[in-house]
């Protein structure tokens, strides 16, 4: 009877422990997963180098493909330069809509989408460091694969990322969920033996 209760108690303890960690991937710090999930939910902000398709419904001559220039703006027909740097797509659409309403169109309907994101950069202990085109959902592991893989000296446990617009590098535990954003600089450090 005592042995049965002891075994039942141990089984309950094991099941409770398994249930509390079932959300985390094996070998991944749950805090890292939360950080990666939060990074994925952040709304994209426009910056220099993004290529946009802007459609003003019913106004073909005002629609087209445009690039955010080095000053952070987009030069549009009729209304000229519209600031885009740091804005979300919805905020940028609102700015274009407002500029068109100021003496040009009564009720403009504007839609914008990113055709090509600004590139990301990867350096350090990869076979082919350099600038690469960004694809939606990019992870560090994908970026490393695009750069020819790790060198034999690479530290495959951590990676350093300087986010676009930031002045400092952050250290991340390298997991399959570690994300890269457009404009980021990823550095793979050398491991210490």
Topology, number of strands: 10
Query: How would you characterize the largest beta sheet?
Result: 5 strands, mixed
Shape: elongated
Topology as a string of helices (H) and strands (E): HHEEEEHEEEHEEE
Strand order of the largest sheet: 7-6-10-8-9
Q: Give the helix/strand class.
A: alpha+beta
Q: How much of the sequence is in beta strands?
A: 15-25%
The radius of gyration is 24 Å
- Number of discrete helical segments: 4
Indicate the percent of residues in helices.
25-40%
Ordered list of secondary-structure elements with their pairings:
Blueprint: H1 2-21, H2 30-41, E1 51-56, E2 64-67, E3 73-76, E4 80-83, H3 89-101, E5 110-116, E6 120-124, E7 130-132, H4 140-146, E8 158-162, E9 170-173, E10 185-188
Parallel strand pairs: 6-10
Antiparallel strand pairs: 1-2, 1-5, 3-4, 6-7, 8-9, 8-10
């Amino acid at each position: 009877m005592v042995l049965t209760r002891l075994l039942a108690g141990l089984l309950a303890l094991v099941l409770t422990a398994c249930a509390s960690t079932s959300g985390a991937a094996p070998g991944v710090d749950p805090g890292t997963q939360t950080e990666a999930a939060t990074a994925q939910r952040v709304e994209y902000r426009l910056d220099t180098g993004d290529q946009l398709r802007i459609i003003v419904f019913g106004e073909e001559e005002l629609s087209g493909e445009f690039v955010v220039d080095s000053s952070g703006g987009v030069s549009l027909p009729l209304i000229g330069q519209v600031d885009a740097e740091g804005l979300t797509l919805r905020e940028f659409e609102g700015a274009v809509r407002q500029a068109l309403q100021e003496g040009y169109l009564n009720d403009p309907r504007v839609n914008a989408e990113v055709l090509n994101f600004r590139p990301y950069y990867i350096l350090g202990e990869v076979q082919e460091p350099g600038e690469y085109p960004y694809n939606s959902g990019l992870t560090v592991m994908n970026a490393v694969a695009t750069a020819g893989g790790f060198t034999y000296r690479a530290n495959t446990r951590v990676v350093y990322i300087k986010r676009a617009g930031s002045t400092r590098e952050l250290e991340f535990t390298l997991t399959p969920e570690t994300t890269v954003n457009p404009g980021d600089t990823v550095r793979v450090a050398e491991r210490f033996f």
